[in-house]
Amino acid sequence: MEERSLRxxxxxxxxxxxxxxxxxxxxxxxxxxxxMLISIKRNNVLKAYETYRENENIENQEKQEQIAKKFExxxxxxxxxxxxxxxxxxxxxxxxxxxxxxxxxALSQYYAIVxxxxxxxxxxKYTKQMYLLNLDYETVEGLEKAQLMEKYKKLYAKQMEGLYxxxxxxxxxxxxxxxxxxxxxxxxxxxxxxxxxYLENILPLKMKQEPENxxxxxxxxxxxxxxxxxxxxxxxxxxxxxxxxxxxLSRKLFTHSLPLxxxxxxxxxxxxxxxSLIVDTxxxxxxxxxxxLLLALMEEYNTKLLATKIYWDKPNEREAYKAFFKQYKxxxxxxxxxxxxxxxxxxxxxxxxDLKKLRLNVNKxxxxxxxxxxxxxxxxxxxNLKNTYCSEGNYKKMVHSGxxxxxxx
Length: 409
Prior knowledge:
two-stranded antiparallel sheet
């Protein structure tokens, strides 16, 4: 009787274990069959990627193309496996109300991306791949296998960099479309968000993988400035300054994906945002902070972007910029001799240069023109006169009795 009881107990335990294992395989969960398939396909793509990298510079072009094609095919199957995991495992767990907050959030993000498929296919194509790679990156990280993680980081960084660049190129092309002001602002927002996403998620990995890369060494200081804006709550001034840093870094990292003509439009957008912030701010301290930011933006725009511009639509604009830049260089040569005088002349130079452009549309910019004029008066570069006639280039206006107008001195 004792032997029979023991045998029955052992048999129940054995079959119970088998049943539990089969249940895990048949029920698509994170540790079920989908997880096993992803793991197999992940290993396949890592091997294919390693072979691809080893043969990247071989002379046999036909062999190189075959290896590249094999990697692309294996990579596509790998992403399909993750996609199936989301649709099967995560969807069923959310539907059954047994999903974790991570899984609920993952499914919500997934459907937000899928929603783009009909209206913005290219954006959908890039963002979906980024989403699937990010999802598996977190899975691999959770496995706590150092060797696997190091291999995966190389694949992840390489593929994600290509996707970020593709997305930026797509948004750059979109800016050329005939968009409404609201739609254009949305594209600008996406451009800045994409650059920021790359800097936060991919650049740190690339910098560790390529410590000798000269570009990464050159941007180290600017990158540290950006990191200051990744913590804490940001106000409008902070957001404009952060975007300015993002654009500056993009000139080194995304020369081809974010062409100069698009970067120029982004700078002009930030300049307009800074001007609007100045005239909309009623608190003097905050207005001065916005004014300092505007001067910094003007300097970045003129020295980091326009100084590298080769093709100009209008020759007269190019000549005007050359004259401005000559003054700017002369000013900087005497920077150390009298710093206070340098800061005064720097403000005058930038304000007068911007004022010429703004006066082409006085009705639109009259508030900021008034602010500039008051600043120039305070700096001793303009005077308020009564009952006078002002002529400056194409800008002419007869002033009635008792009114004031600022003129250059």
